[in-house]
Amino acid sequence: GAGVSQSPSNKVTEKGKDVELRCDPISGHTALYWYRQSLGQGLEFLIYFQGNSAPDKSGLPSDRFSAERTGGSVSTLTIQRTQQEDSAVYLCASSFFSEGPYGYTFGSGTRLTVV
Amino acid sequence: DQQVKQNSPSLSVQEGRISILNCDYTNSMFDYFLWYKKYPAEGPTFLISISSIKDKNEDGRFTVFLNKSAKHLSLHIVPSQPGDSAVYFCAASAEAGNTGKLIFGQGTTLQVKP
Predict the structure, then answer these.
(1) Average pLDDT of chain B, as a whole number
(2) Closest to A24 (Cα-Cα) out of A67, A76, A66
(3) Which residues of B touch A48 (CB under 8 A)?
(4) Which residues on chain A are in Cβ contact (under 8 Å) with B101?
(5) Contact across the interface for A107 and B43, Cβ inside 8 Å
(6) How far is A106 from chain B (nearest CA, A)?
(7) Which among A47, A45, A112 is positioned nearest to A82, based on CA atoms?
(8) Is the pLDDT reported for residue B9 higher than 80?
(9) What is the pLDDT of residue B97?
(10) CA-to-CA distance for A67 and A80, rounded, in angstroms?
(11) Residues on chain B bordering chain A, Cβ-to-Cβ distance under 8 angstroms
């Protein structure tokens, strides 16, 4: 597609439920990143995928969070047993590896609300 | 530990005047700095960047200044326009050539009044 697509755009879930957030990166982009923005906070790095390399999971806040990228394209961020502090906008970005941060294209994000 | 800080959550300026957005960082290993602009309900978009080997980069109305000794950078917008009203994020990377992973500040909401 022309841009990074994220779905759903909004998600309201009950505390304790699991949620899956999807990211469709720009075709051909080899690098994919997940960030989140909590209310009043900056963008917090979560996880990074690059080609077939092991993902950099250093930003995942707890073991309730996991992500995978299938076939080097679509990525799914899964949050298990959601808590209220998980409420945030989850942003996905992709880029050509060679372009590094210059080539970041962000999706519009998924606004997650845990009630 | 907040490695990139934007201490002003908001800024309001008159149309036509200069907007100055500030950013401080603590990690001396950062070698690339970027500014992103974000409108409501949209993802951030890349605005301008600067390498640590430079102290200034200009692109039209936007200029970024880097003071490495002070670990401080600023974004100048001249002249400011109402369409510039958005949230501006400062970001830094210590490994731009490897992973492109960025550390973002909290953002500054700029309002340009007509």
Answers:
(1) 92
(2) A76
(3) 99-101
(4) 33, 45, 48, 56, 101
(5) yes
(6) 5
(7) A112
(8) yes
(9) 54
(10) 11
(11) 4, 6, 9, 32, 34, 41-46, 49, 89, 91, 93, 96-97, 99-107
Burial class (CB in 10 A: 0-12, 13-18, 19+), A36: buried
Amino acid at A14: E
Other beta carbons within 10 angstroms of residue A70's beta carbon come to 8
Indicate the average pLDDT of chain A: 91
**Can you give the C-alpha Rg of chain B in angstroms?**
13
How far is residue A107's CA from residue A97's CA, in Å, rounded to a whole number?
17
d(CA B14, CA B103): 30
* Cβ-contact B36, B48 below 8 angstroms: no
pLDDT at position B102: 87
**Residue B18 amino acid letter:** I
Average pLDDT for B33-61: 93
Return the number of other C-beta atoms located less than 10 Å from residue B38's C-beta: 21
Q: What is the pLDDT of residue A102?
A: 67
Name the minimum distance, in Å, from the CA of B88 to any CA of chain A: 10
Comparing alpha-carbon positions, the chain A residue that sits nearest to B109 is: A40
